[in-house]
Batch of 2 targets.
Target 1
Amino acid sequence: MKYKGTYEFFSTFIEGLTDTIPITIPFNLTPSKIRALENHQSLRFIHAGNWWNIKNPEKRSKEVILAQQMKLANENTIGFMSKNVQPGDLDLKEEEDRLKKIYSKKINYDKFLYWLLDSSKLIKYYKKNLEYANWARENNNSTIPIYCSIQVNNYESAREWFEKASNDGHDHFCIGVSEFLKYPKYKKLGIKKLFEISLGIRSVINENAKLHFSGVASYYLMPILACFGVSSFDGSTPVTSALTYGTIFNENGYGQRASVLQDNIEKRERFFATANKCKCEVCNGKDIKQILDTFSKDRKTRVIHNISIWRNLVSEINSKKNNLDKFLEILDSRINSKYFKDLLKIKDDALEKYDY
Ligand SMILES: [Zn+2]
């Protein structure tokens, strides 16, 4: 369970984002976003898209994905995610029924969360994932690495299939993880699975190999997953929470709506711990009242602030990368939250279960 390199977080791209912020973009980026990105010099990770957003399989074929990724690539592109598949996306009828039932709440999610299935039922998908990644590697006309994506669902399948991928010559790996965290009822189990999967993958790949978890941006999960050897992440939490809910985060990853902080002095004091320590371009030089005023009026400032909180976390992880266990201890005492302590317990259980 060793990883020797540096860590990175790629934020969902929105127009107007500072061009030093590493971003993730989908292969099917809209023309307006393509224009907005023309002069963007940040690092970029190019995603293979989500099967549940793209109903027509022809629009998400391995050929279309790779061709579009190569078109969107520039000298700052660090990787292309290979096409990942899982139960649901090969059978559109079944998928449509599944979504209909979920949205009308007539059915338990557990029957349909693929990662709860027995791993033996997923073998044809594992095979397909590796086949797509190998194809992408052979047909990639650029020097940008293919991130071999396989939707494994436990420690054993992670070891087996990422070892095969490693033997096939891959040294960049990926898994789409948002489904593990999607439903509150299964979140704890999903987190446990993700810890075990990261442990499994890292145990069979090279210590310099990259491992990307796509679809997780949790302030609390990223440092723990880094400890398991996940080298990069992409996700939308700092952006979408700022835009959709008006949420801002403090330097301990604690989120609260800016409007609530404006009205509630007690919550405000707890949030800022008397003074705002953030030095981002929005907060710098302002007092708490001025900052909250700015956050309430201008949604973009919330995004800029939140992303700076995430950038600080990534720099901390990188500066402590030689002793991340120690870093988790420091973080634990700083965050002082029951939820984070529970996560650390799940982490320790995973290590013990697999004898690390
Ligand atoms: Zn700030």
Target 2
Amino acid sequence: MTETTAPERRTVLVTGTSTGFGRLTVEALARRGHQVFAGLRDLAGRNQKASAELTALAEKEGLALRVIEIDVTDQASVDRAVRSVIETSWRLDVVVNNAGMNFAGPLEAYTAEEAHRQFDVNTLGALRVNNAAIPYLREQGHGALIQIGSLSAWLTPPFNGLYAASKAALRSLTEAWHHELASAGIESVIVDAAAYPTNIGPNAALPSDQARLAPYGETLNRFVSDLVQRSTENAEIIGSASQVSDAVVALVETPDGKRPRQTLVAPPLQYAAVQALAQKADEAARIVADDMGIGAYLATR
Ligand SMILES: NC(=O)c1ccc[n+]([C@@H]2O[C@H](COP(=O)([O-])OP(=O)(O)OC[C@H]3O[C@@H](n4cnc5c(N)ncnc54)[C@H](OP(=O)(O)O)[C@@H]3O)[C@@H](O)[C@H]2O)c1
């Protein structure tokens, strides 16, 4: 980032900040002078260490960075967190729906309960957080909802169907929020990221039904090893996870009303392919809406 003038200071809530994009994002935002609430679930247990590290960083560097407990699958936890942000800072400019997880395996090997969990975190998690935040943003007359999406929402590969579906649904929600909230001065945008090395891969929830997994055995093994080999070969082209947090920081600092609805963060070939697809999808949506007689209800930007 090469800006010479200081960006306007924003109050930002980010979910899922123990590791990966979320962690990089809160550290980068706080170091740039923003007031940051770093959402972590289970502060007393699994995220005790992450919480202590973030708090120590804030103290050491004098940052306006606070840890806040938030489990996106629990509406009461989400409501408490958003209320606490408002009571502490009397404003909330940007919400970053980053918390997510990955169910990696053939669809057949998952139960409906497992599938529900994938959507509960990745899709309904953002719905809960935004539902809690929107009344405050509406009252303020401004605010931005940033969702962390995925390229796999556009191009579903095998063996990751639940994850892709959860992110495709998140993309649809982002579009609907955009159209429904633009007149209230609230922006809804998405950052669609390619595959970057974070904990989401190693922490993936694998199917528990071994019998149903068995028929995919050899193909699935080859699929995984091809994926790993190509990402190792292309590591330099792919770059680091901070490309995603840089994109989020840039969106946070973009003046209100000017944020692009979609930001792609991907290696060049993937970027170009998905950008072309996204543009066509946008054009198609307008044509269909006009033909249905509802074009006037689509937000113009
Ligand atoms: N890395 C990629 O290739 C990639 C690509 C496209 C999109 N994304 C998306 O980017 C986002 C961040 O993922 P990442 O790659 O940075 O992975 P990550 O390092 O595994 O981070 C995921 C974060 O989400 C949190 N989380 C999970 N369930 C939660 C819940 N119920 N409530 C609150 N927080 C919860 C995790 O907390 P715990 O530590 O407590 O589990 C962790 O902080 C996700 O939405 C992911 O789908 C990732």
